[in-house]
């Protein structure tokens, strides 16, 4: 199963051109927080190979717009097929991104039934008109990426910038160190109309939280495309992510569309974390 991208994006038609990377630091109004989501099967797909899914996703986001942002992610899911034995997947990620979006350190791990199946570890640095990645795992290797690619937190900030500007479609390149650490994504972001008035939290009572009160919010649909493939209108995304995004970086009402089936992530706990002081 592919890893959930931080919310961090599906239509490949009439997209705006990718914005050039801004060298100055982004003063993003993100709120450090810990969010827990209960995972379940939203759609078994046409084949119906997956009978049930249960599990939990825990996401922590901390730091400051002065020094940078640290994140921890873990999603453990039990997939029960309609035929055959159940499978337990354990996906973990830790990362640190500096405030200017010019460096990104990451470790990504994927285990199935307790057995490690993929680990990527490395550091990406923005240098002039390119991004240089030094991988330590799965093997020592250097990778060069286009300068327009953004790291996850800066990618999220760019999505929020587009939403606040009233845009409905944006195309933003992303690198998060997954898929052996060599694969950037082109993300097609569709931004729904800003929701106003009282927030409907009936389906996720944990969202009735002071951390979300008074914050602007938008429904977001992001499609992830492999940048190494030829771009055409018929190309299908590797997967899609839908969620409700608040202007402080918190997300809820998540759906992970892997093509053959769809998972749902329902917010069950939301806690503010201490904000790091700017020196």
In quaternary terms, these chains amount to single chain
- Name the overall outline: globular
Share in helix: under 10%
Strand order of the largest sheet: 8-7-6-5-4-3-2-1-14-13-12-11-10-9
Give the biggest beta sheet.
Answer: 14 strands, antiparallel
Based on secondary structure, the structural category is: mainly beta
- How would you state the average pLDDT, rounded? 87
Radius of gyration equals 18 Å
Count of beta strands: 14
Query: Which residue ranges are poorly predicted, with pLDDT under 50 across at least 5 consecutive positions?
Result: 1-27
| SSE ordering | EEEEEEEEHEEEEEE
User: Terminal Cα separation, in Å?
Assistant: 41 Å
Number of helices: 1
Task: Set out the fold topology.
Layout: E1 33-43, E2 50-64, E3 68-81, E4 87-97, E5 103-112, E6 115-127, E7 130-137, E8 141-146, H1 152-164, E9 169-174, E10 185-191, E11 217-226, E12 239-246, E13 251-257, E14 262-272
Antiparallel strand pairs: 1-2, 1-14, 2-3, 3-4, 4-5, 5-6, 6-7, 7-8, 9-10, 10-11, 11-12, 12-13, 13-14
């Amino acid at each position: 199963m592919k890893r959930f991208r931080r919310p961090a994006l599906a239509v490949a038609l009439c997209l705006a051109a990718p914005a050039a990377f801004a060298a100055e630091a982004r003063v993003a109004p993100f709120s450090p927080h810990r969010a827990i989501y209960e995972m379940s099967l939203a759609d078994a797909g046409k084949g119906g190979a997956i009978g049930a899914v249960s599990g939990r996703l825990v996401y922590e986001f901390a730091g400051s717009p002065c020094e940078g942002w640290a994140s921890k992610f873990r999603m453990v899911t039990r997939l029960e097929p309609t035929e055959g034995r159940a499978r337990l997947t354990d996906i973990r990620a830790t990362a640190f991104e500096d405030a200017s979006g010019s460096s990104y350190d990451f470790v990504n791990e994927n285990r199935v039934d307790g057995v490690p199946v993929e680990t990527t570890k490395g550091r990406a640095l923005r240098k002039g008109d390119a991004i240089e990645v030094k991988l330590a795992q799965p093997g020592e290797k250097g990778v060069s990426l286009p300068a327009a690619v953004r790291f996850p937190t800066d990618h999220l900030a760019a999505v929020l910038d587009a939403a606040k500007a009233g845009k409905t479609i944006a195309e933003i390149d992303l690198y998060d160190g997954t898929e052996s650490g060599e694969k950037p994504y082109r993300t097609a972001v569709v931004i729904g109309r800003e929701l106003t008035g009282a927030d409907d939290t009936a389906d996720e009572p944990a969202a009735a939280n002071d951390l979300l009160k008074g914050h602007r919010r938008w429904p977001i649909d992001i499609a992830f495309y492999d940048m190494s493939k030829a771009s055409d209108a018929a190309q299908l995304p590797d997967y899609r992510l839908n969620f409700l995004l608040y202007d402080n970086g918190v997300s809820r009402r998540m759906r992970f569309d892997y093509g053959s089936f769809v998972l749902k992530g329902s917010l069950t706990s939301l806690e503010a974390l201490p904000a790091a002081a700017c020196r």
